[in-house]
Design a protein that fits this description.
alpha+beta; 9 helices; 31% helix
Length: 326
Amino acid sequence: MKTKILTILKEADGFVSGQDLCHKLGVSRTAVWKVMKQLEEEGYVIEAVRNKGYRLVEVADVMTEAEIGSRMHSKWMGKQLIYLPETDSTNIQARRLAEDGYPDGTLVVADCQKAGKGRRGRSWSSPPGSSIYMSFLLKPDIPPYCASMITLIAGMAVTQAVKAETGLEAQIKWPNDVVVNGRKICGILTEMSTELERIHYIVTGIGINVNQQEFPEEIQATATSLRIETGRNISRSGLIACSMEWFEQYYELFLQTQDLSRLKADYEALLANLGREVLVLDPAGEYRGICRGIDEGGQLLVELPGGEQKAVMSGEVSVRGIYGYV
């Protein structure tokens, strides 16, 4: 009921009468009043005027199930929403939900993680009150080798959502980072459960630096936040909802072909390294080349000094800019 009341208040042009809310929701005036008090305790500023009703005056950076749900306009992504004030890891939680039979598109969001991790098992700093930590569950009928492309699609979705919500010119650093002004604001980790040639489920975790104003010393040179880049607080709930809308749009195109053929041009338009010299950190030996985009399978195409083009797989190597992180 709280989500429905929030949605009605946000869509209203002015006051909404208590009687109208009671009629639409089939509840008592007392029930409506209790929800309004709960919302005020969470940080919403609500004006209540006799014979007029209620009006939403101000929304702080509130992140609750009701707030996220009231902003969600996707068709199926994130409609099954689990919000946790604290968890070990949203990826771990999403995997548990998958094993319990939760549906395709289930979204897990937490305000704080105690065991967050990034690519190659690296720890992911997860303080409360400022960032986005979310994971979603997918159950596609695709071959397991296609799963790595989900990371690239998620990167596109976050990049577009950051642009829409902040106006910043976000870009993708292949394969799993989103950057602003050459510094990382987002990391993405995709995991899956498979059996032979069948995928049981895929879990994609996304961490976004939203309203932090400082970082641990070891990542200060490469990390930033949307708050630092814009000079203002950004709604985490709004960014979550917008990311899900973009992901749903891109993912449905991906499922039609089971590759990135219909998304390749859009991805390359967001690719920070396109046309620039990169350093490929391969276990077999480092090498340099010019980034020429991606192929339909999501591999990075690097043109070597002699003109040969090499396809780089994301699970094998890291890629850096020659003069910095990007």
